[in-house]
Write a structure and sequence with these properties.
Blueprint (H helix, E strand, L loop, with lengths): L25 E5 L4 E6 L5 E7 L2 E8 L10 E7 L4 E5 L3 E7 L5 E5 L17 E2 L13
Antiparallel strand pairs: 1-8, 2-7, 2-9, 3-6, 3-8, 4-5, 4-7
């Protein structure tokens, strides 16, 4: 931050875990009180940057059976007042909710192409938000 505003690096290859290389990037806008997820990927790692201009609550459940935190919920408030990069590996169920009062932006640079090269593969997502019996419930 400086008198002009702020600058934030979305990611640096030299600061990502070894072997993690983004293959695409996208930006999404989420309206206030809207939830995205919960879902998980079987092969893809997401590299989310919560940059504002709103505040998001991020929800994470490690759904890998051998994980110490198996299915335990972790949350964080990120975005405008707490810009944060969040790396979500395969097998971690994730969701986020815009808990602010204005539209918010989220940048993602996953390490796989959405639906593969030339969009010829099945989507790598397990969409828990479509399951009424899911144990992965986003609260307030």
């Amino acid at each position: 931050r400086d008198p002009r505003g702020w600058l934030g690096e979305l990611f640096r290859v030299d600061e990502l875990p070894n072997g993690l290389h983004p293959l695409m990037a996208y930006l999404s806008l989420t309206h206030p009180n809207v939830i995205r997820g919960p879902h998980e990927h079987t092969r893809q790692t997401d590299i989310f940057c919560f940059i504002g201009v709103s505040t998001f609550r991020v929800y994470l459940w490690d759904n890998r059976p051998n994980a110490k935190a198996y299915r335990r919920l972790g949350t964080a408030e990120v975005g405008e007042h707490n810009p944060m990069l969040v790396i979500v590996p395969p097998g971690v169920v994730h969701a986020y909710k815009n808990i602010g009062s204005v539209d918010g932006l989220v940048f993602n640079a996953p390490d796989r192409l959405y639906t593969g090269e030339g969009r010829t593969e099945a989507m790598d997502e397990i969409r828990h938000e479509d399951d009424p019996n899911t144990p992965f419930v986003v609260g307030d």
